[in-house]
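Forum: Protein Structure Q&A
Topic: Joint prediction for protein chains with partners

I've read a bunch of threads here and the consensus seems to be that you should model interacting components together rather than docking separate models afterwards. I'd like to see that in practice. Below is the full input, 265 residues plus whatever partners are listed. Could one of the regulars post the assembled result?
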Amino acid sequence: MQRGDMWRRTAQLLAAYLLLWWLLTGGDRHSWLVGGVTVGLALAVALSLPAPAAALRISPVGLLLFIPYFLWQSLRGGIDVARRAYTPRLPLDPALIHYPLRLPPGSARIFLLNTVSLLPGTLSADVSADTLCVHLLDKQRDPELTQLEQRVAGLFAISLQERP
Amino acid sequence: MMSLIDLFSGALILASLPFFVAGTLGLLRFPDLYCRLHALTKADNLGLGLVVLALMLQAQSWLQVLRLLLIWLLVLIAGATVAHLIARKALAAGHRPWRRP
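Posted by a regular:
Agreed with the consensus. Here's the joint model:
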């Protein structure tokens, strides 16, 4: 990374963390005693990790479409797993599946990894090269991964790769 | 005096309780680490989402609404990330997922 980029990234992250702390604490002056240390640590950790290859570009339309989808799926996911936990005979039929990813590597893929775990019956367990390893609570149930992947692609305004 | 908004808030908090209980119940009842992660991430996130919604209705300003939303999102990100890391580590350590016999 160029020296200038490094400084810019540091400044951006610092501004973002300061804003986050300020929002969370409501600008209480005394909170900065802890906040200063926390922001410093977060910055150190973030800078020690590799920088994302490209800046995030979120499509506003994609975002508007993604929010209700995500909320609805979170509701379904919570209800589904709660129902299984309450049912005496424990209706689980878990399996590990390998899903060939069509999203290109980068931020979109990481976003997908996180959302998979919040949707009904799926948990992202591992990712390697172009395959996502997903743990299913119930293999009889359609994991709807293709649909999620398309939504994430829409959110970041990118097109999916062809399956090899 | 209880207003309609208070009533909504109360209903949302009540609705969140079965999900927090389900998260813990799943942790105790589910057969392996992977299934337990499902219960913890999904049920608790929904429970927290309902609590956050209830509190948003009681917020005095938009800043408070934003703050509550932020708290929920940060917990979602942390929960999903940690669940993934635990599952990956467990797979790498050779823990086979439980299968229905």
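The radius of gyration of chain B is 17 Å.
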